[in-house]
Amino acid sequence: MGPTPSLLQRFRRLAPYFVHARAGFGVAALAALVSALTEPALPALMKPLLDNGFGKSDLPLWLVPVVIVGLFVLRAAAGFVAQYALAWTANQGVLKLRRDMFAHLLNAQPALFTRHSASNLTNTLVYEVQQGAQAIVIAVLNLLRDSLTLVALLSYLIWLNWKLTLFVGVMFPAVAVAVRIISRRLHRITLAGQTATDELAYVIEENVLAWRTVRLHGAAAQQAQRFDTQSQRMRRLTMKSVAAAATMTPVTHTLTAAALSAVIVVALWQSSSGATTVGGFAAFITAMLMLLAPIKHLSDVMAPITRGLAALERGVALIEDSPRERGGSHAPAKVRGEIELRGVTLRYRADHAPALERCSLHVRAGETVALVGPSGAGKTSLINLLPRFVEADEGSVALDGTALADWDVDALRRQFALVSQDVVLFNDTLAANVALGAGAGQEPDRERVRAALRAAHLLDFADSQPEGLDTPIGHNGSRLSGGQRQRLAIARAIYKDAPILILDEATSALDSESERAVQDALERLMAGRTTLVIAHRLSTIEHADRVVAMDAGRIVEQGTHAQLLAAGGLYARLHAMQFGTRNEAEEKDS
Questions:
Q1: What pLDDT digit, counting tens, does each position of 384-432 carry?
Q2: CA dist 464 to 88, 457, 509, Å?
Q3: Phi, psi (5° rounding) for residue 443?
Q4: Mean pLDDT across the chain, nearest whole number?
């Protein structure tokens, strides 16, 4: 862990996101200056009032309330302008930062999603940058206003009595040292607090997603203990942060009291020798006492600034530390669909066995290839190589003779349609989910949507809904049955009309009648397309052009269904196990 960066370095890191709104900061600074200049005016009134205002005086009485009220109105108006302008500046910066973060999220290398949980990314993107900006708005406003107030009051004190002011000045270096030490501790505690917040949010996320499993296994007490452990850790870090921040107030007050006592002693000595008047002494003490508030605020301002900067820096780190996906310039509109893997090895972790080891496979354009094998054989890993969801450690993967690294990433992924057993749907309408990716702000082609739903045997359901194609389907399709969700995913693939089709247990959630109907639709969709099928039910892939059997990350055999059965290898054993079990069950039923 490197040295803690200075406050100026940290602000510079964030500056690019706020520089376009610097006009607002300028207005805030000007308004804060006006507000600060009104501060010494109040003690300045004490001197003429005490020296000349009592007894016989030419001072108009009406002028006193006019000046006092006028000063307070001016200060209030300037404070409002400063706060509003600074909030506008901060929110413009947050808007840009949040846009950049989300755009980066959409284009970052897939490894980002293995390093960060969904709750972590959500917390950073939605809550932390906003709360960080709000904390900094308040803190910077206080910093501006109180710094300028401090300068204005000190200037007045120097003009009034520079000798006495020297006693005030001795406490500032001591306050600065204390602020520096405590701010560094706050920075470390804040970073630890962010990690604790993420871990607590992750426990909640897991339990929300897995609530059925938790209740089925009676794991509520165990999960409550996990939650309590993380909550206690977060509480301890919060209290450490409060203790560090609260240390500044007694330190500042002690130093101020020492300076004030010295000033009073010297001022009384000066007054006895006639070096100062009663009005001058009262004005000086009043101005000095008015220093207490800005000094206290400035000592307290480090805690929110540290927390706010840490929150915003986390958003910046998400952009800076997670590289974007890179690709080439090759971007044809549509491919023939020839795929070739040569000696591909893929490792997810260096200390684990490879997920794929020296795999070579050639898939001809328009061919249907089924991938079979036990769990963990590497079927999904091989599929994930094609749209570059993972990158090979060794070997090469080519599409139509061009290495995937030379492809424009967006153009490459336009060539694939995927129907997976893990269906992902968006909280939008039926039409929007079918026409996913049709274009921002563009209406989907409703006739194509209807045709895709018809082919997936879901159009009757859509027409039966009061809102038709505009029916909301809920969070991840929660308003649909399992079979309807999978058919909607199939309709999405049909709508995309990509030249390469990937089917990962595409009919696993369908009943027998729906499976036959959708299988017919898939067979029509597969015609003329390169199709890769992952299937555990071997009856669904008997008509594939070629079957590729995988085990422990290797391709162990390939051929037609009949050839592999005759060979008596892995595929034949899997087939015998599956169909032998089924036949035994049928005999028991009979």
A1: 899 888 888 899 999 998 999 899 888 898 899 888 877 888 888 888 8
A2: 48, 13, 22
A3: -80, 135
A4: 78
Closest to 286 (Cα-Cα) out of 317, 302, 270, 263:
263
Cα–Cα distance, 161 to 267 (Å, whole number)? 10
Q: Which residues of 182-191 are buried (b: 16+ CB within 10 A; e: fewer)?
A: bbbbbbbbbb
Domain with CATH 3.40.50.300 in the chain: 329-413+541-590
486 by Cβ neighbours in 10 Å (0-12 / 13-18 / 19+) ranks as buried
Q: Model-level pTM?
A: 0.67
Give the span between the Cα atoms of 316 and 12, in whole angstroms. 12
Task: Kindly state the tokens that stand for 68.
Answer: 């006092």
Which residue spans of the chain are classified as CATH 1.20.1560.10?
Answer: 7-320
Report the alpha-carbon distance of residue 288 to residue 43 in Å, rounded.
9
- Among the residues of 498-555, which ranges form H helices? 512-526
Alpha helices for 273-378 (secondary structure H)? 278-300, 302-320
Note the pLDDT tens digit of each residue in 440-477: 556 778 888 898 888 888 888 888 988 888 888 888 77
* Residues 483, 511: Cα–Cα separation, whole Å: 7
Residues 6+ apart with CB under 8 A from 353: 552, 553
Radius of gyration (C-alpha) of the chain in whole angstroms: 36
Distance (Å, whole) CA 171 – CA 254: 10
**CATH number of 329-413+541-590, picked from 2.160.10.10, 3.40.1130.10, 3.40.50.300, 3.40.50.2300:** 3.40.50.300
**Beta strand pairing call for 500-504 and 530-534:** parallel
What is the DSSP-derived secondary structure letter of residue 362?
E
**Per CATH, which fold does 7-320 belong to?**
ABC transporter transmembrane region fold (1.20.1560)
- Measure Cα distances from 185 to 189, 303, 306, 314, 488 in Å: 6, 10, 10, 18, 53
Q: How far is CA 87 from CA 90, 92, 124, 148, 297, in A?
A: 5, 8, 20, 19, 19
